[in-house]
Design a protein that fits this description.
Oligomer: homodimer
Number of strands of chain A: 7
Strand order of the largest sheet of chain A: 2-1-7-6-5-4-3
Shape of chain A: globular
Radius of gyration of chain A: 18 Å
Distance between the termini of chain A: 32 Å
Number of helices of chain A: 12
Largest interface: A-B, 38 and 38 residues
Chain lengths: 304, 304
């Protein structure tokens, strides 16, 4: 039996749409397969960069089933299942567990701002109780710049105390290394799996007891990120880290999701891949050209 | 035929739950009837104070049908239908139009922050096109303290230009009178219906060409708010306004939704009414007692 838990490089797989904004499942399967064949150890489908909150609950469940039916092992899947309504979160989570997903990555309910730790604790506890399945491995998703509702150390501690076998780890997308470090110092020794929310912090995270990263740019650059993960103890690790950060900086000059889709569209020769759902907008033709030039200037490529 | 459009005092009706967090439809019907019998001119069900984003899409549709089946005229209903996913927004909006609702109150998609006016325009336009029904009357919901995604004047202007018969008005819950004033100056003369997001701005809104207010505290104090609406041109209107603001200030010392439910629970002698869904939490026994004392000290009561 394979050990439980995730580590390495997970991509929050981007979600392809047709021009009419409907989902393109065959492109999704193709992209997910490519990610696993090119360095990703797992897929955090339905993340922020997947436009998950622009999908319906039914669309998410259908896409997840499509991946598993296409032969992608459910054990490498860590779908996002955190919604504003705990009823939706419980439904998506139960569904993910039922089809065998290795874990779920759960946003806090993000409509109400300034809610208490007690209220967030009740939300996660209620979801766990409603799912009521020992196979559940729950990863908390801390992304205050977007959700505006944080996963505090106090919340993690309370959840770990009550649900030690279920609350498995966290993705820290705060962009604040001091916060990741505080999580590592407090929880990593107990086996709590801490993922950096960007490959920019991958090396630091590994050196302090983390298990990897779940990063937007793993959608387009999985091989090199994986290379650092495999070689983080090597002498040239800092150089590899700098190289990764420089590539990410090129992408990050643009709105991230539109940029990732533009890159996949460009290297795959598939114009429709660039489609995003509102409220996001595609890159302009000028932006796409500048981005492609900057990437090829760095020797970047995606081979399908 | 009744004239189209809303005016007066609308309550974002609070949504009752059983202790197990399931919806209590019979209490909801009872509360909505009470609101209409006691001063409300309409019901902005599924607003922020209704915990709408803590409900599933199916729960919202079922509750709306329950109201109409119970004999509440659909024309007085302005349900909230704005979700993170435009597919959900379109589904809820089409449903509301189909059963005859006088309008819908639509949040912007609120997960992604810092999105462009173009992206928000595309979201609302796409929903309107997908609904594809001339009966649709869309009210934009500006509540930046919670949604963190604003409805700018530029966005309103673009939508009004393209969909003049459909985009009918706005609720301004910014809490910033200067913003409401700017909306009034720019759009009120054209028949755009501008609601203050709190009765604290009701008199000012009426004096500058607005049509009323949609306010949380209309859930518990509809009669006196309506009285000001009916008498805003009277000599004692400023005194009535001060009185309303003072009552609201008592409630606003506590988390609003939990406080509203505590008040209905207290005056109705129905403990279960106080239930909220996580991430919200109920008031403590001490808070409930202090709130009830402060309200009765002001001569406040609710008679069922």
């Amino acid at each position: 039996m394979a050990p439980r838990g995730f580590s390495g490089v997970l991509a929050p797989a981007i979600t392809p749409f047709h021009k009419d904004l409907s989902i393109a499942p065959e492109r999704f399967v193709h992209h997910c397969r490519w990610l696993l064949a090119n360095g990703c150890t797992g897929l955090a489908v339905f993340g922020t960069n997947s436009e998950a909150n622009s999908l319906t609950v039914e669309e998410r469940m259908l896409l997840l089933e499509t991946l598993v039916e296409a032969g992608i092992p459910a054990a490498v899947l860590m779908p996002g299942t955190g919604c504003c309504s705990l009823m939706d979160s419980a439904r998506l989570t139960a569904h993910a567990v039922r089809i065998g997903c290795g874990g779920v990555l759960m946003l806090p309910p993000f409509y109400y701002k300034g809610v208490s730790v007690e209220g967030l604790y009740r939300n996660f506890a209620e979801v766990i109780e409603r799912v009521g399945d020992e196979r559940l491995r729950l990863y908390l998703y801390h992304i205050p710049p977007v959700a505006q509702v944080p996963i505090s150390l106090e919340l993690i501690e309370r959840l770990l105390q009550r649900y030690p076998g279920t609350v498995a780890g966290v993705k820290d997308s705060s962009g604040d290394w001091n916060n990741t470090k505080a999580m590592l110092e407090r929880f990593a020794a107990g086996g709590f799996e801490i993922f950096a929310g960007s490959e920019v912090f991958l090396l630091a995270n590994m050196r302090h007891g983390g298990v990897g990263c779940i990063s937007a740019t793993a959608n387009v650059n999985p091989g090199r990120i994986r290379h650092l993960f495999d070689h983080w103890r090597d002498a040239d690790a800092d150089g590899l880290q700098e190289e990764l950060a420089a590539t990410r900086a090129v992408v990050q000059k643009y709105p991230m999701i539109a940029a990732l889709k533009a890159i996949v569209s460009h290297y795959g020769g598939d114009a429709e891949w660039a489609t995003v759902r509102p409220p996001l907008v595609e890159l302009t033709a000028d932006q796409r050209r500048c981005l492609a030039e900057a990437l090829s200037g760095r020797g970047f490529e995606m081979v399908f």
